[in-house]
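Standup notes
- DV: blocked on the single-chain target, sequence here:
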Amino acid sequence: MSYSIAVWLLAGTLAMAAMAREEGAARWTAEQARAWHDNQPWLVGCNYVPSNAVDTTEMWQAETFDAALIGRELALAQDLGFNSTRVFVQYLVWRHDPEGLKKRLGEFVAIADGHGLTTMPVLFDDCAFANKQPYLGKQDEPVPGVHNSGWTPSPGHERVVDRETWPDLEGYVADVVGHFARDSRVVAWDLYNEPGNSGMGDKSLPLVRACLAWARKARPIQPLTIGVWNGGLKGYNAAQIELSDVVSFHCYGNLDAVKGLVAGLKANGRPLLCTEWLARGMGSLPRTHLPFFRQEKIACYNWGLVNGKTQTHLPWGSKKGDPEPRLWHHDLFRRDGTPYDPDEAAFIRGFLRGDGAGR
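- DV (later): unblocked, structure below
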């Protein structure tokens, strides 16, 4: 969901990272992080939003949560050879119905596990393609031709900057992380997606630091991370790298861009996870990227499984009424379960499952 990521000089980022040490977060040691990594398979999967959901509220509300659909769609991921999924959770649904949200997230984790997939939940997110705060009830229908037209943030930009709401935000993190803290089906916690996006600038940085501290109080068996996604946000990058147990990042660039970013991030001595990639028009492709990620044992989650109401097959900046592009931006399958590109799907399946088609 990120816009183009710049590959920055890591020396500058590491210098800024020293500023984050004053937080004194009791993160895992590098040795603990590497031990976790060594005990994992090569994690490969996708960012998943059900095709019937325009945003995270529609995914998780009781009225529109669709376990049967989720099961059918995650079966497609399993068939490709994926073993993990990254999924966004909505604070406002928890605020309205905390027990229901945990129950439905538990259902999701169980469905994913039944298809051989671990789950990486994302609790906060600054991306606000709809230019709205999150809201309950019926969600807007997607605008034809527009990429992710209905997506709302979590917890919402107003709450991010209103410290009076923070006790409730802490309750959300404590409740959800605490509930799954010992659940081995949950592979990691990505606590905050793209902080600073959608015009937030530096305003989200205090919540970045706070939510990591809140999550640590639950003593989860899973690592905590917040992914770097924009080379210009040096204050964020410093804090996120310094306070995360494992280092995650987004990169929608071509293979050279990924290699350059990885070369710098390796200096931290911690496992790497690319939690967003796949933008075909920008050269972010399965045939080029999957072999590199596997060679380096970098966990990787492409954006999108099934093309649905988020319309992320359309490129960033698409306009109302734009037709379906010949070259899809994100996503792997159509809503009827057929692959967008059968040759690409055959490559992924062969590469991951070893049936020879991935050569």
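- Follow-up: The two ends are 29 Å apart (CA to CA).
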